[in-house]
Amino acid sequence: MNVFPRTTLGLPGAAVVGLLFASSAWAQAIPQSVITPDKVESRIGTLTFQDGQPNKQTVAKLYDQLDFQYATRAFSDTLQGVSIHSLRKGLQSIGVKDNEVTVFSELMDAKSLFLTAHADTIYFMAGLDLTNGPMVIEVPPQVLGIVQDAWFRWVIDLGAPGPDRGEGGKYLIVPPGYEGPLPEGEFNIAHSRTTHGIWFARAFMENGNDPKPVVAHIKKFTKVYPYQAGGVGTPIAEFLAGKAKLSPVTPPPPTVFHEGSGKVMNTLPPSDFSYFEMLNEVVQHEPATSLDPELMGPIAAIGIVKGKPFAPDARMKKILTEALEVANATSRSLFMSPRDRSWFYYDNANWQNMLFATGYEFETPIPMITKEGVKPFPATGYRQLDARRAFFYGVTGITPAMAMRLPGIGSTYLWTMLDAQQNYFDGAKTYKVTLPKDIPAAKFWSFTLYDTMTRSMLDTPQRYPRAGSQSFPSPAAEPNADGTTTVYFAPQQPDGVKRGNWIQTMPGKGFFPCLRLYSPLEPFFAKTWRPGEVELVK
């Protein structure tokens, strides 16, 4: 039987046969590893191809998945920026404008939603607006502070960890693209990559029991005002040399202060679709180059682009909403159930702080401090994304000062999500934790309880969910006869337990404790002292 015609396109049958055999040989030569099967079973369903060509249904399914991936990345890569924006908006919600200062004169309480804030020190803070040029921030002596840009990047430390080393100082924060003259010597100059941001500082109570003189000290020495080019900090010699212009030296405008204690405000980033609307606000308010192009890529891919309206259609809005739900749930899981054991400070213990393993840039562990000096670890060359995501989901503020092993300086933190039996904490039950004697804190120590939903201070009738060595705003914890100190977490004050040794919890509400050591001492860093695990009593 003659299968092939004698001629095809003018070719004899034998030639056609040769071409077909050649084609078959070519097909057989394609490595199996590069072939896309006609059907691919995946986590998003069956994907169908014909000789590598996706059908319309497959294309639509894959584009939905691609947009979903971009949306989840946009959340995880920008959580810190939306957090800063939310903080500024929270302050604005109680009538505080950017560059005006909020002082928590009776300490921060649980009525406002702030990521893992505490009631141990006196916070004062302000949104930062550099739209009209550089701003000056004057800070008092003996404070700890930090300036963050709109993407939650560290700009400069204020106070004790900063260049003034706790003596008080003047800081000049310069916006991106500023080309005007800058003074020499008068100010500590720092350049921000964004036009907005936040700064905050903390001051310590004298003897741990009276905030009033500290608040007066803050209001006396804290100033925020526009930089006057050619004024203070500009030598006349530079003017005579033609290097600078002079302007009259005039008193700065008075700094506006607001009371923060007892005010109700929400400073948390949202976990619904409004997250992307807030992200769009950040992108529109900042220079297009304020964020790394690689990080800006997923943001642009979901329709958030500088100078363009953010108007997702119904399909895209559905994808963004679903991606937000998954991304938020993932971030919450990373924060509350970490899979990386390097985040845990001790072997076989639940106390954790990932910064010791990642440093403040979530890359290289913080350096060791030896008798010979600072011993840095070699750069890893990669970002620890889980750690970054978990940290910013639960914490406000990032600085090298939060990730250091210097005894007697700053403060350090450990938190735990689980009790000794590896269970989450139940607000209806009673727990206790014991600290060995000689707690390694030169200034003071404290426990604070946080709401698992809001990652903010647990709101109970106590108002201040804390216990520690200070006697304000709650009585100081009393040590046991053997020098150890035991603190209880319970809905009702346990029998025989002093008020200062009890933090109230709420039935039906989850929580987690955080231990803070202010001016931590060497036994903490050497791990010769360690807190006990939190034990279930009943």
As a percent range, the share of strand residues is: 15-25%
CATH class of the largest domain: Mainly Beta
What is the count of DSSP helices, taking H or I runs of 4+ residues? 10
Quaternary class:
single chain
Mean pLDDT, nearest integer? 91
**CATH homologous superfamily grouping of the largest domain:** Domain of unknown function DUF1214, C-terminal domain
Share in helix: 10-25%
In spatial order, strands of the major sheet run 10-9-13-7-6-15
The CATH architecture category of the largest domain equals Sandwich
Number of domains: 3
DSSP summary, beta strand count: 25
User: CATH topology of the largest domain, which one?
Assistant: Jelly Rolls
Low-confidence stretches: 1-9
Gap from first CA to last CA: 90 Å
Q: Label the overall shape.
A: globular
Structural class: alpha+beta
**Rg result:** 29 Å
Q: What characterizes the major β-sheet? A: 6 strands, mixed
